[in-house]
Design brief:
globular; binds 1,3,4-trihydroxy-5-OXO-cyclohexanecarboxylic acid; three-stranded parallel beta sheet; mainly alpha
């Protein structure tokens, strides 16, 4: 039901829409030199399919499984297929709500959980993901992550940050590629 944000129980979920959240995530991602893609569905199987498709193609995941948080072994199993940090986000504080919302099938397999901080929680999650990524197998992902590349260099790994490749990936954002080379 996250597509109904803005109209849905504003006392719990605020007045912003899912589009607002996605736009602020894109802006924050550009700042962090990360690329984000977003997906929403009301169908459990579609969410499982989307997570499976992301395997091997993403470095981390921010997920608000909404009501499926409390019920879905299928989404949990799909998340287990992913490598990299996973941040679980809830707009409302699920731990202050009904007992059935206080159980999460994702929490114990997630890197961390942000709950109750509203839409800002997604931005904090992206920052947490960026930090976790820099620590998580930094050498393996340097080709696609300037942040990881910088961190790998900082830690003295023998890496070459390929500016041409980074330019290709970040053609819209020269700062990301050049910051990496200066890093
Ligand atoms: C939610 C909390 C869930 O319990 C609920 O079913 C949602 C949204 C949140 O973001 O606070 O749909 O995940």
């Amino acid at each position: 039901n996250l597509n109904m944000l803005g109209q849905r129980e504003p006392d719990h979920y605020g007045h912003g829409t899912l589009d607002d959240i996605n736009q602020s995530l894109s802006a924050k991602a550009a700042e962090l030199c990360l690329q984000v893609s977003t997906f929403q569905s009301n169908h459990e199987g579609e969410l499982v399919d989307a997570i499976q498709k992301a395997v091997g193609r993403v470095q981390g995941l921010i997920i608000n499984p909404a009501a499926y948080t409390h019920t879905s072994v299928a989404i949990r199993d799909a998340v287990l297929l992913l490598e990299g940090p996973v941040i679980e986000v809830h707009l409302s504080n699920i731990h202050q709500r009904e007992p059935f919302r206080q159980r999460s099938f994702i929490a114990d397999i997630a890197t961390g959980q942000i709950s109750g901080l509203g839409a800002s929680g997604y931005l904090f999650a992206l920052e947490a993901l960026a930090q976790a990524l820099a620590l998580y197998v930094p050498v393996r992902f340097v080709e696609t992550s300037p942040l990881a590349c910088r961190e790998a260099e900082r830690r003295g790994h023998d890496v070459v940050c390929d500016s041409a490749l980074l330019d290709d990936i970040y053609e819209d954002n020269d700062d990301c590629a050049s910051a990496t080379m200066l890093g």
